[in-house]
Amino acid sequence: MAGDGFDPSQFSENQQEALGTYTAVTNQEPSAAIPILERSQWNVQIAIAKFFDGEAPDPVEEARASLASSPAPPPNSSRQETLMNGFSRSPRPSNRARLDPAPRIVPQPESQHVYRTPFILTVFLTPFNLLYRLLSGSLGFFVYLFPFLPRMLSGLAGSRAQSHRQRDTTERRPLNSQDTAARFAREFEEEYGQHELTFFSDGYAQAYDLAKKDLKFLLVVLLSPEHDDTSTFVRGTLLSPDVVNYINDPQNKIILWAGSVQDSEAYQVSNALNCSKFPFAAVVAHTLEDSSNSMSTITRISGLVPPSAFVARLRSAITQHSVTLDRARASRTEQQATRNLREEQNSAYERSLAQDRERARRRREEEEARSRAEREEKTRAEAAELAIQNLEQWRRWRAQSIAPEPSASGEEITRVSIRMTSGERVVRKFRAEADMEELYAFVECYGILSRDLTSNKVLEPQGYKHKYRFRLVSPMPPTVHDLTGGDTIGNKIGRSGNLLVEPMDEDDDT
């Protein structure tokens, strides 16, 4: 048998799986579940059935216990069994009388189905239906011609119909457990008037399970309306103030379930509890002395009993088993408190773990955001540096293609005075037929041309499209000479002119 400490490693994989299934269904602790699984040869279905239906005593174990408790025969002695002394020795009386197990009864009421004839069978029976209607019509016409025949036949069938009607009145419609309990409570109140008893509002199996779960006493009262002592028992004993107060006292922890044996469920319960006489009452309780999940009948009260004797029988049985149940309740409360503490600790651990995960997630997101910002900044810096390199390379490449300054004679020229953004004034002559872009390129590449850095051959940068970030403006009159229209320098400026280099925003295009 397993001890109080539970070590899963000492069981096989199949046994651990069976233990997990059993504890999930019954909500028992492993220390209490292992013994019943061992007694059931680790069969989960048998163990669960024993838990809910009660465990019958094992004759093999009882025989072993009796052999172990019997004294050994003295050595070198012989005993001769005769008819006089062979059966004279009576067995040792047990410390406690063996209680009868109380099984869990689940009624199976007759289901009320409406059967419909299949279509093929309906087609097959159609000729017989027509023949029946024809015969019925002929019989009706015959009765119309001879009206005295029905009165003669009615006297012969009267007694049979009367007995049939009497048999029908005793039949009760089968209902489910909850509706059956409600019907019994309603009929009980109609018969005996208002009362203070609180009947359990569901079936016997549900009351049985509740008494087993909460470690309470289940008082079962079975009545037979056809019995002569039923009315006297109910009015004089069951509804007496002493009995009602004792049953309703919450300290006694009694669940009252009652039923009429005319109902299928109460009839099955009477057979299971070995009811021999009506009215009948029995107390069913969780007997931990037999096993950890057995339910037994601790007392039976049959026949007409005075209220004082009824209460005395109930008090004696309940007092005798209250100590064990109180100890079990305290143990279960302690286990529940331990389980709640463990769940609270697990919940606190899960919350702490969730907080740690949240902090780690935020830290990871911050690191990713910082890394992404650094990458974007690096990408922007590289793009800016590449743009500067491309601009410098383009200036060197474009400066190579700028035409040299023409002489003052021999061709049409335009003399332009340009004030740079640095304040320097540059005066240069351009061919009048040169494109206006030539003047813009001169201003863009002035730094390269002034330092004479065009000696080395430079290629145009790949994938770079240059945009001028300035514009040339004539102060008098104020005129902007942009590159739209593609006109020549002579047509834009004339033979001479003064120009200002005016920087542009990055959003403006020239």
- The number of helical elements comes to 15
Name the quaternary structure. single chain
Strand content: 5-15%
SSE string, helices as H and strands as E: HHHHEHHHHEHHEHEEHEEHHEEHE
Low-pLDDT runs of 5+ residues are 67-96, 110-115, 156-170
Strand order of the largest sheet: 1-5-4-2-3
| Quantity of strands, as a count | 10
Mean pLDDT: 80
- Radius of gyration, in Å, reads 54 Å
Instruction: Characterize the overall form.
Output: elongated
What does this structure look like?
The protein is of the alpha+beta class. Helix content is 51%, strand content 12%. It contains 15 helices and ten strands.
For this entry, give a set of tags:
single chain; 510 residues; alpha+beta; 5-stranded mixed beta sheet; 12% strand
Helices and strands in order, then pairings?
Blueprint: H1 13-26, H2 30-39, H3 44-53, H4 59-69, E1 100-101, H5 119-145, H6 148-170, H7 177-192, H8 204-214, E2 217-223, H9 230-238, H10 241-248, E3 254-260, H11 264-272, E4 280-286, E5 295-302, H12 307-399, E6 413-419, E7 425-431, H13 436-444, H14 446-450, E8 470-474, E9 479-481, H15 489-493, E10 496-503
In short:
By secondary structure, this protein is an alpha+beta fold.
